[in-house]
Design a protein that fits this description.
By secondary structure, the protein is mainly α. The chain has a single domain (12-130), classed as Up-down Bundle (Multidrug efflux transporter AcrB transmembrane fold), CATH 1.20.1640.10. The protein has 4 helices and 2 strands, in the order ββαααα. The chain has helices at 15-45, 50-77, 86-118, 127-130, and strands at residues 5-6, 12-13. A two-stranded antiparallel ribbon has the order 1-2. Strand 1 (5-6) and strand 2 form a beta hairpin. Helix 1 (15-45) runs antiparallel to helix 2 and helix 2 (50-77) runs antiparallel to helix 3. The protein is elongated, with a radius of gyration of 22 Å.
Length: 144
C-alpha cells in the first residue's frame, strides 16, 4: 500500500516523476514550437502562402525535432534501471515522443488557423502581391 501506481512493467510512476517530465519536456516543446513558427514566418516573408510555409517549415524541422526526441528517450534509458528514477525515465521518454507527435500536428495547424484568421497572409508581408501600395494603401496595377 505505497503511494505509487504499479504498472504492468513493474515500474512505478510517482507524481514527482510526472512533474519532472513536465518541467524537462516543456522547454523542448516550447523551443521546437517557436522554431517551427519562426521557419514558417520566414517562408511567408520569402513569398510562400501560409500552407506552403507551414509544410516547408515542418519538413525542414522534422529531423532535428525527431533527433531531439530520440536523444531524450535514449538519454532517459540510462536511468531506466534505477528503481528510484525508473518512473521518471519512462514518463520522460514517453512524454517526449508524445509531445513530438502532438506538436508536429497541433502547432502548424493552429499557426495556420490563427494566421489566416488574422488576415495577414498577403496584405501585411507582401503588399505588392495584394495589389496595394505599402505607403498609401492605394490599389496598384499588378503586372506580370
Amino acid at each position: 500500500m505505497g503511494r505509487e501506481n504499479s504498472r504492468p512493467s513493474g515500474s512505478s510512476i510517482f507524481a514527482k516523476s510526472l512533474a519532472g517530465t513536465a518541467l524537462a519536456g516543456a522547454g523542448i516543446v516550447v523551443r521546437n514550437s517557436i522554431i517551427l513558427v519562426d521557419f514558417a514566418e520566414d517562408g511567408i516573408r520569402r513569398g510562400l502562402t501560409i500552407e506552403q510555409a507551414v509544410v516547408d517549415a515542418g519538413a525542414v524541422r522534422f529531423r532535428p525535432m525527431l533527433l531531439t526526441a530520440l536523444a531524450v528517450s535514449v538519454g532517459s534509458a540510462v536511468i531506466l534501471f534505477d528503481p528510484i528514477f525508473q518512473g521518471l525515465s519512462i514518463s520522460l521518454a514517453a512524454g517526449e515522443v508524445a509531445s513530438l507527435l502532438i506538436s508536429r500536428m497541433a502547432v502548424p495547424v493552429l499557426y495556420a488557423l490563427v494566421r489566416r484568421r488574422a488576415g495577414s497572409d498577403v496584405e501585411e508581408l507582401h503588399p505588392q502581391r495584394s495589389g496595394k501600395s505599402e505607403e498609401t494603401g492605394d490599389e496598384l496595377a499588378l503586372t506580370g
